[in-house]
Amino acid sequence: MTHVKITMAQALNQALRDAMKADDTVLVFGEDVGALGGVFRITDGLTAEFGEDRCFDTPLAESGIVGMAVGLAMNGMRPVVEMQFDAFGYPAFEQIVSHVAKMRNRTRGKITLPMVIRMPYAGGIGGVEHHCDSSESYYAHTPGLTVVAPATVADAYTLLRKAIEFPDPVVFMEPKKLYWAKEEVDLTESQPGIGTAVVRRDGADATLIAYGPTVPVALEAAEVAAAEGRQLTVVDLRSIVPFDDVTVCAAVRRTGRAVVVAEASGFASVSSEIVARVTERCFHSLAAPIRRVTGFDIPYPPPKLEKHQLPGVDRILDAVDDLQWEDS
Amino acid sequence: MTTVEERLLPSAEPVRLIDQDGVFHDHPSYLKPASDLLVDGYAQLVKGRRINDQASALVRQGRLAVYPSSHGQEACQIAATMVLRDGDWLFPTYRDIVSIVSRGVDPIEALTLLRGDWHCGYDPYERNVAPQTTPLATQLIHAVGVAHAARLKGEDTVVVAMCGDGATSEGDFHEALNFAAVFKAPVVFFIQNNEYAISVPLAKQSVAPSLAHKGIGYGVPGEQADGNDLAGLLAVLGQAVEKARAGEGPQLVEAHTYRVQAHTNADDAGRYRHEDEVTPWLDRDPIKRLEAYLTQEGLLDDAVKQRAEEDAAQVATALRDGLMPEPVVDPADLFEHLYTEPTPQLKEQAAFLRDELAREEA
Ligand SMILES: Cc1ncc(C[n+]2csc(CCOP(=O)(O)OP(=O)(O)O)c2C)c(N)n1
Ligand SMILES: [Mg+2]
């Protein structure tokens, strides 16, 4: 019951540390995760505390990292690997899609792969080319993967612990712009598990559906909207796969209007999936078509232009304004 | 003191202990395997050949969707498992059914993938045989993980990881060799160079002096052997396994063999190679030559031959009987195994299919 003020990066580090303490088979590896502690310091101090066998640097090859994790998981280990950045996970794509995702199914459950692929993702940090991709849709589209994205410090800790304990492979997307976000948290406090969305703010007029880096933006928009007299619900998905239809649909039915907020390009994306499935389920409760505020369908822009790509408060409020209020 | 070259470079010529006429030749670095091993190997070769040919026949009869035969490569198939102990692991490809069966997996279960009633039909942990892998070379890196886990657990497991000549061009082949070397993982990478990747001949795949040379860049010792000589393969692979087990790190072995049949029954080899090219390889057949050797040595009496034939006939019957009935498939399988706990969405979809099937039946 001790509250501490820590960053998301520290919470993730603590989660790894506690998981490694709790279970000898948890291994952490990837590029620069040893002595350096990872380029974002998420694995800081783990080699010193647990030794080179438990937290180690690998040769620079992402397919090798993920493929080796598959083999380790086949033989009794719980690997937690780091892709240094979202866009550097692509060399591992074949391993992820053809093996990580399919192994359990193709062996009728004889082989399960308890492994976590951690990935700093998305933008908002002024990163240069290839350092700011929102690649969650690729993984969410792949049957067999569980895809998680925390938005709060407490969730970063809880969801990573739960991902490591999860019996099946989890792609753990860490919103890198939130790494330095500080919160007063009690890490021992129990939080909902993987597959459960959480209502972060209640409001009767419309629902903002967000995950990962857009949750704080949605909350900020809701704050401004409230000052202007409109009460918004904010749903934090937490887990993209499995998708929590129940929580999301309940919020949308209650409010009758919804906007999905995501950093990734909108076309054929998690955001388009959300609109489709919520519309299928809640059509008669909707007073207006669901709107989306997403990145444009362009490669992630260079730092000097990224502000145009990122969903911001104004764009969210404009989308909310567009939800056909005149008819109600 | 051995030089780096001596340690890493393969023999200048593929190691061959028994030539295609069945004559034994001494080798400076490799001993002849024990006679009883060769006799047992002979019986396994005969059985392996029968599995290949029976499976091909079953494709023609519509009982298997496809069969990538290892006809002519049986010495590699058998040697790969003969050098392993019980706790060791085998990582096979789509072409390695004979290896899988020789490791002790039920042949019908081994053919599940090609029959089409599921993907992997056997329990990989029962005989420590990984699921057959089709995406080329991707399994090699899993083998490194399994081997590394074994080392961390203090077990003296060795992993034999198989691939073809074409697969050595894939990135994962190189990543696997490098990872294995850096982590000193007890993996024996075993390349069956059958000179073709579907239609593409080796010359278009690589200009390396041999595929065994590919180990050098990673500090992995390479060796090459005549892939149709069971004795040479047992000696070379046996030594590689021993070194890996002794903590000397990964080893790379290339077997020079030949794909005498098409890539699969669905392939038309006439479009890319001449029959003239195939003919000399028929004389290099692995069974013929071992039979000639064992006969000359008086090791192959009629009783042994008869037992081998009977074993082969038995497995052929088992294949025919086991594959003749239409396999029983369960649509519920489609949703049941993807996750330990199916997602709510999968539960909905499973219910949808159940209803659809119930309506069809009604
Ligand atoms: C990554 C990947 N690319 C392409 C294929 C299609 N394919 C299947 S087998 C094959 C040839 C492989 O040749 P080789 O590695 O020499 O093995 P062989 O079939 O001769 O045993 C190809 C191109 C594949 N299975 N995986
Ligand atoms: Mg080949």
TrEMBL record, chain A:
Residues 6-181 form the Transketolase-like pyrimidine-binding domain. InterPro entries: THDP-binding (IPR029061), TonB_box_CS (IPR010916), Transketo_C/PFOR_II (IPR009014), Transketolase-like_Pyr-bd (IPR005475), Transketolase_C (IPR033248). It comes from the Bacteria. Keywords: Oxidoreductase, Pyruvate, Thiamine pyrophosphate. Its cofactor is thiamine diphosphate. This is Pyruvate dehydrogenase E1 component beta subunit. Transmembrane segments: none annotated. One of its GO terms (molecular function) is oxidoreductase activity.
Automatic annotation (TrEMBL), chain B:
InterPro entries: Alpha-ketoacid_DH_E1_comp, DH_E1, THDP-binding. Transmembrane segments: none annotated. This is 2-oxoisovalerate dehydrogenase subunit alpha. It catalyses: N(6)-[(R)-lipoyl]-L-lysyl-[protein] + 3-methyl-2-oxobutanoate + H(+) = N(6)-[(R)-S(8)-2-methylpropanoyldihydrolipoyl]-L-lysyl-[protein] + CO2. One of its GO terms (molecular function) is branched-chain 2-oxo acid dehydrogenase activity. It is an enzyme of class 1 (oxidoreductase). It holds the Pfam family E1_dh.
